[in-house]
Specification:
Blueprint lengths: L1 E4 L4 H12 L4 E4 L16 H16 L3 E10 L24 H11 L1 H5 L5 E11 L6 E11 L15 E3 L11 H7 L1 H10 L2 H5 L2
Parallel strand pairs: 1-2
Antiparallel strand pairs: 3-4, 4-5, 5-6
Helix pairs in contact: 5-6
The structure holds inosine 5'-triphosphate and sodium ion.
Sodium ion (NA) binds next to loops.
Length: 204
């Protein structure tokens, strides 16, 4: 059994591989389909971007396709970087964003908040869209609450994990093991919601 996920993010892919392995599924990602076009994320919401990725690739491959659009929403920044999380520190035509340049920019933006020694609350958000040709897509979302720490810690995970302090853990999400993160993260919670409905939906 196999699931196609419309992602090029190796960190996400690893988490999906682990979560789907428990259900007896192998995962394929866009890294396995180099001939497919890039899908431009022109949406302004997580759902729009997840739909663009899942529905475009499902229509090309004529197969069911899952997509994840996710990001970090910082309350004191009005929910930014949000849907722009992956591209936060990009300078178009000059430099691509990397996980570490995104973290550096976010910590810079939060400088005055840290000086006030307030708790910089934030949440990771994940929207999953499962699309299949000629049918309505499944959509589920979940959040993971925490705070931003000014000093990055931990080597696991990806993206903003080194600066995301998990509520009640005293650890960043990069200090959690992959097993721990895959039980409590925004992506794990969205997967749980999807699990309730997707096999039935796939077969109808
Ligand atoms: P695909 O669109 O190809 O899936 P992407 O990295 O561009 O890959 P998104 O547009 O959904 O994916 O951007 C999500 C960004 O939000 C991601 O690059 C991370 O910086 C951040 N992010 C999402 N989930 C995260 C997690 O579990 N841990 C840390 N950072 C996360
Ligand atoms: Na993306």
């Amino acid at each position: 059994k196999e699931i196609i996920i419309a992602t090029k993010n190796a960190g996400k892919a690893k988490e999906f591989e682990a979560m789907f392995a428990k259900k007896g599924y192998k995962v394929k990602t866009l890294l396995d389909y180099p001939e497919l076009p890039d899908v431009e994320e022109t949406g302004v919401t997580f759902e729009e971007n997840a739909r663009l990725k899942a529905e475009t690739i499902a229509n090309i491959l004529k197969k069911p396709v899952l997509a994840d659009d996710s990001g970090l929403m910082v309350d004191v920044l009005g929910g930014f970087p949000g849907v722009y999380s992956a591209r936060y520190s990009e300078i178009p035509g000059v430099r691509k964003a990397t996980d570490s340049s995104n973290i550096a920019k976010l910590l810079g933006d939060l400088h005055s908040a840290f000086i006030k020694e307030e708790k910089v609350t934030a949440q990771f958000h994940c929207t999953l869209v499962f699309a299949k040709p000629e049918s309505d897509s499944l959509v589920v979302s979940a959040d993971w609450h925490g705070a931003i720490t000014p000093i990055p810690r931990g080597n696991n995970g990806f993206g903003y994990d080194p600066i995301f302090l998990v509520d009640d853990f005293g650890k960043t999400s990069a200090e959690l093991s992959s097993e721990e993160k895959n039980q409590i993260s925004h992506r794990a919670k969205a997967m749980e919601k999807l699990s309730l409905v997707w096999e039935n939906w796939l077969n109808n």
